[in-house]
Design a protein that fits this description.
CATH architecture of the largest domain: 3-Layer(aba) Sandwich
Number of domains: 2
Strand content: 15-25%
Number of strands: 11
CATH topology of the largest domain: D-Maltodextrin-Binding Protein, domain 2
CATH class of the largest domain: Alpha Beta
Number of helices: 9
Structural class: alpha/beta
Shape: globular
Amino acid sequence: MSWSHRLLFLLCCPLLQAAPLRFVGSDFPGIVQPGAPQPRGVAADMIRALCQREQLVCSIQLLPWPRAQAMLQHGQADVLIGPYRTAERAASMHFSRYPLYVDTLYWYRRAEQTVQWNGHFDSLAGLRLGVTRGWTLGQRFEDAKQRLQIDTADTLMQSMLKLQRQRLDLVASNDRNARHTLAQLGLNNIVPIQPAISLQGGYMGYALHAIDKPALQRFEKAMANLAESGELARLNLSHGLVYPGKNTRWPDYLRQLP
């Protein structure tokens, strides 16, 4: 059985008959990745810590990203790990108050290439733009994408290879996934361009059918405490990620995130 179909129980409290909180996600560098004997990444660390503290039964399953989203929508999971917030997604899930991690998104080009990008999507008219299936670049992109020439690939690696072979002009990605993918491919001539597309929070997405679960409410409260105490920042740092610290003015900070 492949890792993408393996269900991994992270913690079982004494009440073994209790239904687990079912977390689903995909293989995202630094966030949640397959590992032995259990997943690794800031999400896996946080889920383990909070389930232990709150004495919750929790499980995590790693799947292709579109399928993980579909499982949440179809009632087969309780929590989606790490989605960015958009109006479309908000119709099918509730988001945690605080993000689990924060990403900066860029367009990537070949180093020898000259591309005009001023932060407005209309400036990309006529360009071949690579995006990954199931990903979003934020609400502004969702509102503009019908006017753009979008090429959708199943993986970021496929899009980066198309860019390298001059079949695309730009590829969109967060910096975290892009660095990992370009290192895997051994490509050093693909670079991000300024300005950034957006700053995105990766949240916990709670299924509509599950929001009244006492276990989920306990998990959400514990996650908020983790962010406000600075512990979530330390968890992010341990995986090479940047996250706001204990003294953050959260109302101001959260207003800048979609």
